Write the structure tokens for this entry.
Amino acid sequence: MSTTAIQTKAALDGGPTPAVETREQSSAGIADYNNRQTVGKIKVENPKMVCQGVDVHYGAKQAIKNVSLDIGANEVIAFIGPSGCGKSTFLRCLNRMNDTIPICRITGQIKLDDEDIYDKIVDVVQLRARVGMVFQKPNPFPKSIYENVAYGPRIHGMVNTKAELDELVRNSLERAGLIKEVEKRMNEPGTSLSGGQQQRLCIARAIAVNPEVILMDEPCSALDPIATAKIEELIDELRENYTIVIVTHSMQQAARVSQRTAYFHLGDLIEVGDTDQIFTNPRHKLTEDYITGRFG
Amino acid sequence: MSTHKPTVHPGLTRPERDIKTIVNASLARRNAAERRFRWYGLIAIGLGLTFVVLMFSNIIGRGYPAFWQAYIQIPITFDPAVIDPDGQRDPRALANADYAALVRAGMRQLFPDVQGRQELRALYGLTSSDAAFELQTRVQQNPKLIGMEQEVWLLASATVDTFIKGNINRALDESERPIKDNQIEWIDKLQTTGKIEKQFNSILFSRGDSREPEQAGIRGALMGSLFTLMVTFLLSFPIGVATAVYLEEFAPKNRWTDLIEVNINNLAAVPSIVFGLLGLAVFINFFGLPRSAPLVGGLVLSLMTLPVIIIAGRAALTSVPPSIREAALGMGASKLQTVGHHVLPLAMPGMLTGSIIGMARALGESAPLLMIGMVAFIVDVPKSFLDPATVLPVQIYLWSDLPERAFVERTSAAIMVLLAFMILMNGLAIVLRRRFERRW
């Protein structure tokens, strides 16, 4: 991971605010943390990931401003908000995908099962195996369908025999609801599938390494309504075993698939709450304006 | 440009000029510009093709006679008294015997009525000095020949060869041509009896350089080029690819990497002779590597080729869609795995193309090699990376400087071989690229 990771960590540990100070601030600022301007319940009883005072800077520009949010285990949480509000940026902090951007600095604390994922001892490879990701545009590898799904287990050394790998690949494709369509064409290129199938292949690829959290960055924005419906159905099924964070531009989709919804606006987390409540009874003016379509 | 009458919607037409007339007014001009442009393109392509055809027909027209060579059939008596007076069949005696005497005797036998010292010398001048060496090899390989009589095809001299190929005007005065009247007479006689003929010139491909055109071959230069290019490829491809990958995928983007990038781009534009001077100063004077060696030539050409490979490699890496990197990183692949498993295979065809362009340039390069002594007259075919050698373009340069007519055609023949070498290399590159290219 080399330099970018080191840089980010350097920014975290030795940046403008040294590490100790950051920790002190966050622990001393518990009251502040509870009294933030975010409306709604940011804490949950059974959190999988806990974010406290996360700031993200791209160079001089601040993309995320002091966001604190819990992500509950086995829940689907949707991030909504107008373009450029920082929801994708925040999502990418959760598995440190922002490490690849050299000018990106992240401060604050993000914990996965009580372990700070930006801690020096955490290996980003291990983190990303635990927190998988599905991207906006389906991006299967230019390899066969089988190889696409087998890639993760192979690099992490999850299986020992070809039979085990076969089983794992089949299983993953089955859970992604794709097995019937691709059973007979496992050796065809992943890119020969339709857009919706490709996205489900990417989901199969992500769940093949059995992650704990799956991040989805607008997974349906490039898909037609039928493919979208299939993915949404799939998300609902996956909730049993995984924690899912989904960024979406479609409020209907957020309402359909998520239990909790977080509304971002210009880098601020404005409001978070149960999806039903957010869409029926938003408490913040900005949230209301957005979901009623006054802007965004 | 349609001619039918427009349907006029009364509400939409403005009284004077509707959009159709406005467009029509400029349409003729626009179409003419387009046609003109197409013609310019065709003319450019036509001119280019004409010059390519001219060049090739000129080179091939001049070069192809060099692939044939005149031989004379001479009755040779393998006289034991000349070859092996002791009768011991001692290899040293066989090696040192006066085989030229056998050739001379054979020539006298062909033309018994030639008398006088000068006449005889002119007669002996029809054969190449190689004829004696040919007999020597035959006897050494098969000592049983001693005592036998045989009709042997022996190499004619370059002058005879040039004359046979019609490159000497027999109408000229004797003093103005390299061949004497009596020699022409003898050649005519040999031709009528079928004792002189053109055979495939295997010497061209089996020997090194020589001062005698009929004995000069390009094997030495070919092997020199091969060894040099091997060194160049083995050094510049791995180093170039590794540099490109490091700079593009791993290095932080800061002032230092910017500086390195600018310098690499500048190096690609440095005149090649400068690399020759650098190689002379560093590899030969400082490290004390042997002069004229393909190893040093390869090192110098690597320096020259590296920037080209690095630039092409970086361009190929940049063209790999970032979504592939994200996909792999998101799966938990390490940076090296991402590059090794996904990015590099996708960039490989582009990298190979760049490398082949660099290698082709290295193959055709002569200036830097002049500086490190690969311009020497080297008769022996090099057998290793350290033997003195020359390369094809330098050989072409050397031969093009020689006055004999026979070297003119050899120069063209060497150019043909160089071009064939280059086409072969490019063909190999295409095959490799096809193999590496994703099938989807």
